[in-house]
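Lab meeting minutes (informal)
Scribe: AK
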Amino acid sequence: MNVTVFGTGYVGLVQGAVLADVGHHVVCVDVDADKVAKLEQGIVPIFEPGLETLVKENAAAGRLRFTTDAAAGVAHGTVQFIAVGTPPDEDGSADLQYVLAVAETVARHMTEHRIVIDKSTVPVGTADKVRARMSDVLAERGRQALTFDVVSNPEFLKEGSAVADCQKPDRIIIGTESEATEELMRELYAPFNRNHEKILVMDVKSAELTKYAANCMLATKISFMNEIANLAERLGADIEMVRHGIGSDPRIGYHFIYPGVGYGGSCFPKDVQALIRTAEQIDFDARVLKAVEARNHEQKTTLFAKIHRHFGGELAGKTVALWGLAFKPNTDDMREAPSRVLMEALWEAGACVQAFDPEAMEEAQRIYGARDELTLCGTKEAALKGADALAIVTDWQSFKAPDFELIRQQLSAPVIFDGRNLYEPKRMARKGFTYYSVGR
């Protein structure tokens, strides 16, 4: 099948590469000429395990192409994916200008029937807006007789495992009321639906809400667990014991109940805010979602509070080694990352940071540039040298079994602030560390 994907960001690039890998002929359209030129050379602008290989192999095979020519993209694909960004507006609602711009582009250039698929995370009612914008443009062209359909097909990719999630999805949501469109979508996704039935067909608005509901549910679990962790700390309980106790209940499970320093990334913060704003627009008070958001904002400050308290508020002139900049492992994404909240608070208090992350060093350099208070180190060991304490923000595998004797030698004092509960408190005490963690 001929497929066009508008947008070569995280979702669009993964979706396009995986569809090409099963034999579809995919053209990815982007307005950024420099980005397109790099992709044509096999240079992938984001870190995602397996993605670069997938792009190079399918481009070499002729199944995956990149262009800035929107008209060629519209002409190519019976299916037109909209996979552009929906950044939060000033009030937190999703900004649909890029989604609607693609809808207008498709309507401007189409000469025969097209299926337009909302892959971007968009508020309930977006398909109606896309449909209305396309109809207006076709009317301007005097081509009202041209037919099209708009489908909601939300993505459920996790950064760090997006390729695998796309190749082996746990569900494929298709929002349409057209039997012909449903049949075409089933054909598109047939290679991913062979093991057992994964396709769920529903009305468009239900599909749009499903995406937000899924992310907001996961964010709720994280914020709830962080709240219980704060209680555990004050009550003298161990949140890790509590986690095992509740996770063994199959109604709860172990996923997304790890206490920490708050969620970040491009999805959860934005989607929680957007659904709150959607609720406000229909005069509904989304109390649970507001509490989830508030708890997460506060949770991101807890590691700094522990550091501030340990040093008696005297942080000027101190140096903190920081392990982890990305909001989660296996990505270089620092959007809404807890590390940023911690570093900026430390700088405000007069402290310096020596940081290391396996993948996010260039991103940190891009965000913060050159500044005296930040040293980006080539290894996790280099970040320790002469620091007054170690703070762990991201639970990369390489941080889970370090050389503790080397840490003792490199730090000016054996102090660790662990925002991910990577180590056992009793073991750390036996090794002579002053050890702070979350909820223990």
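Next up, CB showed the second protein from the same session:
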Amino acid sequence: MNTRTRSPSSSMAGDRRRWWALAVTALGQLMVVFDVTIVNVALPSIGRALDVSAGGRQWVITAYTLAFAGLLLVGGRIADRIGRKRAFLIALTGFAAASAVGGASVNLAMLVAARAGQGAFGALLAPTALSLVATTFPDPRERGRAFAVFGVVMGGGAGVGLVLGGVLTEYLNWRWVLYVNTPLALMAAVGAVFVLKESRGRERARVDVAGAVLATAGLVALVYGFGTATTDGWTAPLTVSMLATGVVLLLVFVATEARVPDPLLPLRIVAHRNRGGAYLAFVLVMIGMFGMFLLVSFYLQTVAGYTALETGVAFLPFAGGVLVASVLVGRVMTRVRSGLLLAAGLLLAAAGMGRLTGLDVDSGYLGRVLPALVLIGLGLGTMSPVAANLATFEVAERESGVASAVFNASEQVGASVGVAVLNTIAATSTAAYLAARPNGGQARLAGVVHGYTVATTWATGILAAGAIAVLILVNARLDIPREPNSRPGA
């Protein structure tokens, strides 16, 4: 029998191709992550240019969030069925087109439709990118380094979005916060054509239409309900009805998935203790991180008097902390039990939140905010690569897309819960503080800061409790080579 051995040069070329593939997928993921925050900074300019009310401006954010959250599981399953390279190219092309339409918008309806298109294609792009990393790097050590890079993108991308949004809005105009995605997406698409290998798609099977409808509707209702809780309160009829509807639809979805022969989401994917622990850890850290973004942004702009651009720059140390921790964790991920790394990350983030509980009106950025941002960044950078790696742990290649989608859905739900819950706690605490004191200018500022400190105290407790939970749940070591065609883990 004739056998061929790979020459050293071909092996090196294959290695280079894998790392170029990582760069391409990371660029795709980066657009999804920073698009969550890049538009926020430009909202006042959008409102003035298109004559949009504050309520209308909120739909620029909500349209993206709802489409993204609602379609994630469907996007992950599409990638499994049609092949991940093909799905990645479709997602990038659609994202580029939607971004170009958004930048050219002449009214709110056009902009909201474009943002919904970005969210829909982002829901295909995000799980596809994560599953491509998982399937491209079967060797544990290489996979650890690859997920370290991905951790930097996931953790630092939101901070990059704040800075980039401020720079583009101030020095060009608001349209460029959307236009910027088009050349980036097309660059990633061209690279993908040359460096990505098509992974085997899922075998043809009956489409779980009921599961797709239930999952999409349930996630949309849940995320929308948390959004209305932020603006209208938890007892508002719309908030209560949307949250109740979301919970009921997702419960029906779980019951349906347990019965159908080819479910949209095989329940064993989330029932696995290590994957489930990773999803839980990311929900909790997103609650803390997006709550922190909201509260610190408000503090810097309403109390410390920072501009939007200065606020974005102030978050750069957070991104630096993510970078440093992710690089270090990438080197030790296969030698340390995953639960310990996840718990360490959550505890570092809790320590950073703990620093913010000491805020007052006269707190300086260097003495109080900066150390908190660095600690939270270190915490997120410690646990993000591990959680992303565990998201597809012991999952067969044919189902890595939907497993990646669950991970992205946990991020989105955590972010929505964090903004809604911590903002409500802050507002309620501020109102109680002011009701008991004279409502002078200084008292009002003190009340606002008091609300922030109460909210960050809750966030500290949530993150610390999460550290205990993942220590109990997660016992995997990530030094086992991936076997793409193996039976999925139970």
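CB comment: The CA atoms of residues 67 and 120 lie 5 Å apart.
No objections, moving on.
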